[in-house]
Amino acid sequence: MTTTAATTATLTTTAPTGTTGTTGTTGTAGTTGTTGTTGTTGTTGTRVELLLPTGWFPVCETAVLTPGRGVAALLPDGRQAAVFLDRTGTLHAIGNRDPFTGACVLSRGLLGGGRSGPPFVASPLLKQRFDLTTGRCLDDPEVAVDVYAVRRS
């Protein structure tokens, strides 16, 4: 299985014909959100995978993630996920589409929270904050984004 990264930080994965799925997981499970589980910690494993309805989907190599920053991942159905590695080494994945503007920009937002509250990303456009464990908007509790289970393999 090969992973390619575009200069826009959008990552896509392609697999050769006849390749079967991967096995094994590393790290420990994190917090359960409203639509999934997020927050995998641990430093073993070289690939980041998201749990989709069809199974685990490889997104990128762990080495391309920078603590405190996010990357956008193109999913098989055409949607995007924002994948983050926070400064504690925990992985998070949420939908990349900002529900207030419709733009796919959450992967470029600033991370915050931690000791003073839940980890969140602030949208780079209108600055609404989204909890990385539940997807819920901290500034408007009626709004939320998707949350994806994430693991290192």
Describe this structure in words.
- InterPro entries: NirD, Rieske-like_NirD, Rieske_2Fe-2S_sf.
- Residues 1-44 are annotated as: Disordered.
- This is Nitrite reductase (NAD(P)H) small subunit.
- 0% of the residues lie in helices and 39% in strands.
- The protein is mainly beta.
- The protein has a single domain (25-152), classed as Rieske Iron-sulfur Protein.
- The radius of gyration is 14 Å and the shape is globular.
- The model is unreliable at 1-38 (pLDDT under 50).
Supply database-style keywords:
153 residues; mainly beta; Rieske Iron-sulfur Protein; 3-stranded antiparallel β-sheet; 13 strands; 0% helix
Q: Order of strands across the biggest sheet?
A: 1-2-7-8-9
How many domains?
A: 1
Which radius of gyration do the C-alpha atoms yield? 14 Å
Supply the CATH architecture.
3-layer Sandwich
The helix/strand series, from N terminus to C terminus, equals EEEEEEEEEEEEE
Largest sheet: 5 strands, mixed
Low-confidence stretches: 1-38
Topology:
Elements: E1 2-5, E2 10-14, E3 31-32, E4 37-38, E5 47-52, E6 55-61, E7 69-74, E8 80-85, E9 91-95, E10 110-114, E11 117-122, E12 129-131, E13 150-152
Domain Rieske-like [2Fe-2S]: 56-151
Region (Disordered): 1-44
Organism: Streptomyces zingiberis
In short:
The protein has 153 residues and is mainly beta. It is built from no helices and 13 strands. The strands form 4 sheets. The protein has a 5-stranded mixed beta sheet with strand order 1-2-7-8-9, with no helix packed on it. A 3-stranded antiparallel beta sheet has the order 6-5-13, with no helix packed on it.
